Amino acid sequence: MPHPHVSQLRFARSEFVRGLDGVKAGEATRRFGPMNCISWIVGHLTSQEQAYWLTMAQGRTPYPDLYQLVGSGQPASTPPLAEMWEAWRAVTAAADPYLNEVDTATLLQHFERDGQPMRESIGSMMQRNFYHYWFHIGEAAAIRQMLGHTDLPQFVGNMSMATFQTPDDGQGQP
Prior knowledge:
Layout: H1 4-20, H2 25-28, H3 38-58, H4 66-70, H5 81-100, H6 104-107, E1 112-113, E2 116-117, H7 122-146
Antiparallel strand pairs: 1-2
């Protein structure tokens, strides 16, 4: 059984997917004022997951240019939605074997950078990751309202699920 923090991350992921259900490619690249677009949000969260659970935890970076495209402080971009979902699915799938092994002792450890322990523990980084999802779920809901979408999710989904799996529409899109 996964650690409760891992379950919370997976639940945040599933709510992220649920909150973006029905967004079309052209809508996902639309920007309103200084806000980032939905496709950027998908890529941005992918970039964080890659940095934490692949680069730092496993020493691999399958999308080395992702941070330049959608990282904090980078110039605004409007990447294609399909490409960002493809990267998100690949990164989260590659992160899951590591996350499956996380326990309380792991969460108390620190990744290292340049031979020095990072300031935040793995546990606080995981919390930052799932809170980051919730921040952008709200932002994406606001963008969807500006796009004129109706019947959006109104509240947190079903938390009673034993495990949180990423839904797939059979077309390769979450």
